[in-house]
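Students often ask what a holo structure prediction actually looks like on paper. The answer is less mysterious than it sounds. You provide the chain, you provide the ligand, and the output is a string of discrete structure tokens encoding the 3D arrangement of the protein together with NDP.
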Amino acid sequence: MTTKTALITGASAGIGFATAQRLSKAGYQLILVARRKEKLVALADSLATDCHIIACDVNNHEQLKTELNGLPSSFAKIDLLVNNAGLALGLATADKTDWDDWQTMIQTNCLSLAFVTRQILPGMVERNQGQIINIGSTAGNYAYKGGNVYGASKAFVDHFTMNLRADLLGKRVRVTNLVPGLIAETEFSHVRFHGDMDAVKAVYADCEALAADDIANSIAWIAGLPEHVNINKLEVMPTCQAPAGLAVDKTMLD
Ligand code: NDP
Ligand code: 8X3
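The corresponding structure tokens follow.
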């Protein structure tokens, strides 16, 4: 049996880290992408399957392209791409938010996800075999106060995924938007709140959120389905979370 190869962006923490562990257990050799090399090296050392490390900012497209074009031949045929690297920055309303934060989110969550896809997809199409799992967010499906550009960037991931499906009709290349809700114990909220631990704790207090492993297991399930089955979209929330309706302001008549 030939070993399958998966490339995971954002493998140094959270969902990407857990996914590397889960896919390695399923027998995949891995290409691990993130900025923090030491985390990737420690992860690779702990896994039983072979790993190739790309310590790179996904927004550095020139470096990323060079790294992907120079993959060792044993890693060059990518079977599974997990487009996971992404972030939210801040929770301010749109009138107060930091413009740099908006640019970083659009750059990372939209442009770089599209860039990585554009680099890897031609090989999949040529081999007529492959799978892409994009990590979206419930923030892309449901608006909430302060979600502004983060939610919009994840709506991009959703529609980009469906348009890829349209382009790939007739090819054996599968594409999924995996849409998680609230996940605790990743670095997501540390990043969003710039290390403000009180704000981080408040997000996850008094509820049982998803764990990164829950999403890693969903990824492994999607990847393990027979080739004729494509999950277009999978939304996963903790039981303690639900889409809870629209808001009505009762003070505007004052
Ligand atoms: P983490 O912050 O724990 O992990 C993010 C990963 O992305 C890290 O490995 C980080 O690595 C990498 N990353 C971020 N920016 C870059 C960059 N410019 N270049 C390379 N790598 C980058 O977050 P999560 O695991 O929670 O989130 C992963 C994905 O899941 C994101 O797309 C997020 O939007 C989405 N998501 C998260 C939810 C949650 O509640 N946590 C819910 C729904 C979706 P490094 O810093 O080393 O570069
Ligand atoms: C992360 C989930 O609700 O914090 O994508 O935006 S949420």
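The chain is about 40% helix and 15% strand.
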